[in-house]
Write a structure and sequence with these properties.
The complex is a heterodimer. By secondary structure, chain A is mainly beta. Chain A has strands at residues 3-5, 9-13, 18-25, 32-37, 44-49, 53-57, 60-65, 70-75, 84-91, 97-99, 103-108. Helix content of chain B is 0%, strand content 49%. Chain B is globular. Classes of the chains: A mainly beta, B mainly beta.
């Protein structure tokens, strides 16, 4: 079966760095997405990786290892507004997004 | 660019009535639209995938006769919750994709703002 695993909840301190891990098992693979979702709102796109390596975009970076079925989202210089759920989703061979359950990130002052 | 709207933003209805939710891609043509449901503090759950002009593909456990999906054009999909009951109260979110083509990342899903349904 197809499966995405990510931690349920993480806590970090304002100004610090946090890494949210995601492992995936899918039928084929056509890339991995990270979305951010604030409570009561719809998800917004953060990043997409299809090749191995690190993609940096401002305070957020995303890493992919296809051989390990592994990705992480790295958030630097954390701000209170980064408190949200972070959703990992893999695109399978049918170009269907397989969603993880999301990681709730709590930022403390 | 890549804006998706949903209407209404929230709706309260009585048990037994039907509710229609509209999802529109405002500045692009969506080859595929998706409908999700999300209960409080839970993850997104895909309900169905629809392509313009064809029948929607429902996920296992989602009743197609209860959740009617119509994808009439490349910019509009509707979800009708028929004979709604309190357990259908949830946050319904649509998304749209341009598929491989388009301006963004291939197969990126652009999300609407969601519709909060409360059935009394």
């Amino acid at each position: 079966g197809q499966n995405i695993d990510q931690p349920t909840e993480m806590t970090a301190t304002e100004g610090a760095i946090v890494q949210i891990n995601c492992t995936y098992q899918t039928s084929g693979f056509n890339g991995l997405f990270w979305y951010q979702q604030h409570a009561g709102e719809a998800p917004t796109f953060l990043s997409y990786n299809v090749l191995d390596g690190l993609e940096e975009k401002g305070r957020f970076s995303s890493f992919l290892s296809r051989s390990k079925g592994y990705s992480y989202l790295l958030l630097k210089e954390l701000q209170m507004k980064d408190s949200a759920s972070y959703l990992c989703a893999a695109l399978d061979s049918n170009y269907q997004l397989i969603w993880g359950a999301g990681t709730k990130l709590i930022i403390k002052p | 660019g890549a804006v998706v709207s949903q209407h209404p933003s929230w709706v309260i209805c009585k048990s037994g009535t039907s509710v229609k939710i509209e999802c529109r891609s405002l500045d692009f043509q969506a080859t595929t639209m998706f409908w999700y449901r999300q209960f409080p503090k839970q993850s997104l759950m895909l309900m169905a995938t629809s392509n313009e002009g064809s029948k929607a593909t429902y996920e296992q456990g989602v009743e197609k006769d209860k959740f009617l999906i119509n994808h009439a054009s490349l910019t509009l999909s509707t979800l009708t919750v028929t004979s709604a009951h309190p357990e259908d109260s949830s946050f319904y979110i649509c998304s749209a994709s341009e598929g491989q083509g388009g301006r963004g990342v291939p197969y990126e899903q652009y999300f609407g703002p969601g519709t909060r349904l409360t059935v009394t």
